[in-house]
Structures are given as C-alpha cells and as structure tokens.
C-alpha cells in the first residue's frame, strides 16, 4: 500500500485538523465523514489532538464566538454551531447536525484557499541526526489504513524510544519505508522525537518479563515462528 | 527440558469473541467453563463463568497458554486473577453492544494498575456492522488516561486478525527486553 | 436489575426456604447462598456479613472449574467442592433442580463436621426438587 503512493502517482498533501469543543457524537461524525470522503478531497486530512495543526474545527454557541477562542495560528478555522444561530462573515461555519456534504464542501473550499496561500505547508519536520522516536498515542485508522506494516511499525514505537536503524532491523521493514512512516507520523503531532544526545528512559518491564529474564529476542522469534507469525 | 510457558489473556465483555479467538490459536480443544445463561438481557444461550483455556505449542519445549476471562462484570475478581503474570493482555470489544466505549472504560478501570506495564492490544470487533464508535475513539480514551496501545479493527473468526493482535503484544514485549 | 429467566424465578421461593433451613439446621453455619450456575444469587441466609452476590459469582466459577476438571479427567460431573481454609470452610454443592443447574454454598467454622454439612446439602437438593 505505502509503496503505491511513492511510485509516481499524485501524493496528497497532509493537513492536520484539530477538533475542539465538539461532542463525542460530532467527533465520531467528523472521523467517519473524513474516512468516507477521503477520495473526494485533495488533501489527506488527519485529526490531531495536540501539537501543531493546520485547521481548527471548533464547536461554539454562535459563530461569532469563535473569534478570540481559536488560539494557535491555524491556517483556517471552521466553527460548528447549532442550526439557526446565524453566520459571521469572518468565519467559515457548519450547522449542526453535521452533514456529510456540507463538511466535504467546507473542507474542499479550505483546501483551495490554503493551496493559494504562499509559504505554508504541512511537510514533515526534519529530524535531527540519529534521532529516536516514540509514539504518544496510537495513530489514527486513516493513517494506518489497515496496513500490516504500518500497524507493526507503530507497535514498535509504543514502549520506548527507538531509532530508525533499530526500527528497520527489528521490524524487517526496509529503512526508506520506516522513514516515510515516521515522517507521516510527525505530521500528526503524536510522535515524540528525541535527539541522540539525550539519554532515554528504559521502559518499565512487565511483571511477567521481570520474572522471566530469559525472555530475549530469540524467545520472541521462537514464539512468532511457532504461531505462524512470519511477515517477511 | 522444562517447558517454557507464556501466558496471554483475552478479556472483554460477553460476546466479544474471547472464546473464538482462543480457539483460533489453540492446538488443543479449548477448555471452556460455559454454563447456561439465566440473564434474559444478555441474548446468549451460554456464558463463561470460570475461564477459557487453550494452548499453542511452539515446539522446542515452549508453549503459549491462552486464557479467556468471563465477560460479565460480576466475575471481575477472575479478571485480575487470570491476568496475573501474563505476558500480554488482549481486550476485545464488540462494537454492536449498546455502549462499547463504556465497556472499554470498565476494563481499563479493572486493569488500571496493570496497564502501565503490561503488553496490551485492543481488538474492536464487528465494526463493519457498527462503524461507530470509531476505532480512533477508543485510542482517544486510552490517550486520555495516558495510555497508548494498538487498537485494531478485527474479526476474531479470522486467524490472521487474532495473530495480528498477538504480534502487537509480542512486539511490545520485545521492546521491553 | 438483571432479568432472570422464567424457570429461575420459579425457584426463588424454594431457594429462600432452603437457604433458611440450611442455616438453621447446620450448627456452626455462618452463611448460606444458593445461586444459579452462571453466578446470580437466588437466596441467602446467615449472620456473617458477606456479599451474597460476590460469593454467588465466585462459587459458580469454582463449580465451573470443578466441572471442567472432572470432564477433563473423565470422572463425571462434580457433586461437591470443599475449600478448607485455616479459619473455616466453604462447602459447595452442585445441584440440578427442575432442569436448572444451581450451586449451594455453606460457609461454616472449623468445628462443623464435613459429613454433616454434605448430608444436609444433599437433603436440600432433594427438598428443592420436591417443592
């Protein structure tokens, strides 16, 4: 899957969508609509929960209330208010209950506006040399796209900091693919990146592992082989 | 040579597929402690009241013991007993239940002191029938508690899906060595 | 509130009477719980402060594990399970009452003769079936 995107086909720009003050119901709708409407949008919209973002989607009492609430420096703000609460000229707004077509149209309009804005991008951050990485939360389903390699790579990044070489070696996924995945994760605000000079804290061992110090890489290889878990 | 045994526990609400998941991996007929259900609201003929047990023989004198906990809340004392010293914990959720996120929170509460150090994966079942809540909402619930585990949509009737959950548990364990 | 099956609700009254009778007849009994095999308490009696719902769930688990072990070893279906502890005893009877699998447990102190308790539990099952 990830290889296809790299071989000459159009690579979509990543945009980070921060959701704030939205009900669980609206959150679920936004995620579902983004997943369903993926092919229609020019960019890859990734929902983020902290860190930097490109577009803020904010639940408000009335559209004008968004001014002064946004915080950060988003490229655009989209507010969500109950139907009938009016519009504000300075703000893009959506009415509740959220509708699929309305959301897609609003996002498409934002995509066109952002594309015409110079010197703004959602490119992955540059990593320091010999950087080590760790995930702060499990990546979104849209990012993982049920790809086994991506799911496995994400699992390697959960318990402690790991460098690119080590990630490739342990996962048996080639280094460029690992690097691409790390770059993608870096746009979501969920990847902790530590420079080589920092001394990482060792992860807490589980009780079972603390009681069985003989559990090493060979044991896990044996377990995988015995279960028929061979990815490469 | 003494047999090296590893334990992986499957937990989750009734009907989430714990017994099925174990049967997918076990080389022996699973031991089940199912009895007739008397709870009219459960919608199942049988319910697990003790534990499910299976075993995957790895060769070389090693095996993985697979345990399933009873799903219903009144058996929560069994959850902790069974999960003691487990190499990994798999929490299975049935997305067609009335409140899957609440179900999930119940298990996060029950295992709260284990979760910071246990290798854990979460399998969300029947997302095709019920796409909401989304898989990402379960990840968010974990993130709110400062936790990060693999959360995967699964069909426990597919062996490769169950194996993927186990693989993510093994990966976490491997990274702690 | 759990909605028990119709068959189970018809057993509520006999279960209450049986629990009271067991508690009265077994000297040294501290508590009696009668539960469904899937861990719901139908009736309880006694002076020791216990949570009958929790005990019902626990003894149903114990009973189910005993049943699994009996099947595994080919020795039929279990009749009794005894947890002999330093300060007392839990005696569990696996019963079949009107096509319903039930579990009865008597919590006693150390002074009570085990055979006495087993005999009363056996009689209790007969009485519930006759009710």
SSE order and pairing:
The complex is a heterotrimer of chains A (232), B (177) and C (131).
Chain A: H1 2-6, E1 13-20, H2 24-36, E2 43-48, E3 55-59, E4 76-82, E5 92-96, H3 100-115, E6 132-135, H4 141-144, H5 148-156, E7 162-163, H6 164-171, H7 175-186, E8 191-194, H8 207-210, H9 217-227
Parallel strand pairs in A: 1-2, 1-3, 3-4, 4-5
Antiparallel strand pairs in A: 6-7, 6-8
Chain B: E1 4-11, H1 18-25, E2 34-36, E3 46-48, E4 52-59, E5 62-68, H2 76-83, E6 88-94, H3 100-110, E7 119-125, H4 135-144, E8 151-154, H5 159-175
Parallel strand pairs in B: 1-5, 1-6, 6-7, 7-8
Antiparallel strand pairs in B: 2-3, 4-5
Helix pairs in contact in B: 3-4
Chain C: H1 6-9, H2 12-25, E1 29-36, E2 41-46, H3 52-73, E3 80-85, E4 88-97, E5 100-108, H4 114-130
Antiparallel strand pairs in C: 1-2, 1-5, 3-4, 4-5
Write down the oligomeric state: heterotrimer
Provide the CATH top-level class of chain B.
Alpha Beta
What CATH architecture label of chain C applies? Answer: 2-Layer Sandwich
CATH superfamily of chain C: Dynein light chain 2a, cytoplasmic
Q: Spans of chain B with pLDDT under 50 lasting ≥5 residues?
A: none
Instruction: Give the SSE order of chain C as H and E letters.
Output: HHEEHEEEH
Strand line-up across the major sheet of chain C: 2-1-5-4-3
State the low-pLDDT regions of chain C, or none.
none
Estimate nothing, just give the exact number of structural domains of chain C: 1
Average per-residue pLDDT of chain C, rounded, comes to 91
Class computed from helices, strands and strand pairing of chain C: alpha+beta
- If you consult CATH, what is the topology of chain C? Beta-Lactamase
Radius of gyration of chain C: 14 Å
Largest sheet of chain B: 6 strands, mixed
- The amount of beta strand of chain C, in percent, is 25-35%
Describe the protein's architecture and organization:
The complex is a heterotrimer of chains A (232), B (177) and C (131). Chain A is α/β, with parallel strands linked by helices. Helices cover 35% and strands 18% of the residues of chain A. Chain A has a five-stranded parallel β-sheet with strand order 2-1-3-4-5, covered by helices on one side. In chain A, strands 7-6-8 form a three-stranded antiparallel β-sheet. Chain A is elongated, with a radius of gyration of 21 Å. The two termini of chain A are 16 Å apart. In chain B, strand 4 and strand 5 (62-68) form a beta hairpin. Chain B has five helices and eight strands. Chain B has one domain: Rossmann fold (3-Layer(aba) Sandwich). Helix content of chain B is 31%, strand content 27%. Chain B has a six-stranded mixed β-sheet, with helices on both faces. In chain B, helix 3 (100-110) runs parallel beside helix 4. Chain C has helices spanning 6-9, 12-25, 52-73, 114-130, and strands at 29-36, 41-46, 80-85, 88-97, 100-108. With 131 residues, chain C is an alpha+beta fold. Chain C has one domain (6-130): 2-Layer Sandwich (Beta-Lactamase).
């Amino acid at each position: 899957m990830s290889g296809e995107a790299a071989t000459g086909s159009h690579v979509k720009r990543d945009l980070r969508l921060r959701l704030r003050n939205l009900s669980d119901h609206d959150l679920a709708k936004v995620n579902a609509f983004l997943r369903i409407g993926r092919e229609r949008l020019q960019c890859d919209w990734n929902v983020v929960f902290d860190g930097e973002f490109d577009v803020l989607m904010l639940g408000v009492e009335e559209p004008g209330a968004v001014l002064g609430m946004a915080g950060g420096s988003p490229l655009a703000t989209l507010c969500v208010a109950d139907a009938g609460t009016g519009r504000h000229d300075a703000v893009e707004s959506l009415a509740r209950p959220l509708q699929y077509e309305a959301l897609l149209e609003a996002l498409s309009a934002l995509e066109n506006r952002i594309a015409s804005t110079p010197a703004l991008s959602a490119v992955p951050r540059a990593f320091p040399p010999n950087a080590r990485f760790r995930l702060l939360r499990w990546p979104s389903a849209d990012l993982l796209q049920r790809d086994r390699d991506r799911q496995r790579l994400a699992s390697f990044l959960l318990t402690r900091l790991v460098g690119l070489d080590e990630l490739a070696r342990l996962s048996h996924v080639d280094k460029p693919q690992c690097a691409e995945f790390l770059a993608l994760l870096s746009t979501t605000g969920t990847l902790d990146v530590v420079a080589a000079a920092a001394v990482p804290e060792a992860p807490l061992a589980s009780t079972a592992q603390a009681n069985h110090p003989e559990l090493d890489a060979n044991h896990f290889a044996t377990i995988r082989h015995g279960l028929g878990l061979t990815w490469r | 040579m003494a047999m090296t045994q590893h334990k992986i526990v499957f937990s989750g609400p009734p009907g989430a597929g714990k017994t099925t998941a174990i049967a997918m991996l076990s080389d022996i007929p699973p031991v089940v402690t199912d009895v007739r259900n008397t709870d009219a609201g459960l919608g199942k003929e049988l319910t697990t009241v003790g534990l499910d047990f299976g075993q995957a023989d790895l060769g070389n004198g090693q095996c993985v013991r697979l345990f399933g906990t009873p799903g219903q809340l009144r058996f929560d004392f069994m959850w902790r007993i069974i999960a003691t010293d487990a190499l990994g914990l798999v929490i299975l959720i049935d997305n067609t239940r009335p409140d899957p996120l609440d179900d999930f929170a119940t298990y996060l509460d029950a295992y709260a002191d284990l979760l910071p150090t246990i290798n854990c994966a979460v399998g969300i079942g029947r997302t095709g029938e019920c796409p909401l809540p989304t898989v990402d909402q379960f990840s968010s619930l974990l993130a709110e508690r400062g936790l990060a585990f693999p959360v995967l949509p699964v069909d426990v009737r597919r062996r490769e899906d169950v194996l993927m959950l186990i693989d993510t548990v093994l990966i976490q364990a491997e990274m702690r060595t | 509130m759990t909605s028990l099956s119709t068959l189970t609700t018809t057993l509520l009254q006999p279960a209450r009477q049986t629990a009271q009778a067991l508690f009265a007849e077994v000297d040294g009994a501290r508590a009696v719980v009668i539960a469904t095999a899937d861990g719901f308490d139908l009736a309880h009696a006694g002076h020791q402060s216990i949570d009958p719902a929790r005990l019902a769930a626990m003894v149903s688990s114990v009973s189910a594990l005993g049943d699994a072990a009996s099947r595994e070893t080919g020795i039929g279906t279990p009749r009794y399970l005894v947890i002999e502890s330093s300060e007392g005893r839990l005696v569990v009877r696996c019963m079949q009452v009107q096509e319903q699998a039930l579990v009865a447990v008597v919590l006693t102190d150390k002074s009570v003769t085990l055979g006495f308790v087993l005999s009363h539990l056996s009689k209790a099952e007969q009485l519930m079936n006759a009710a």
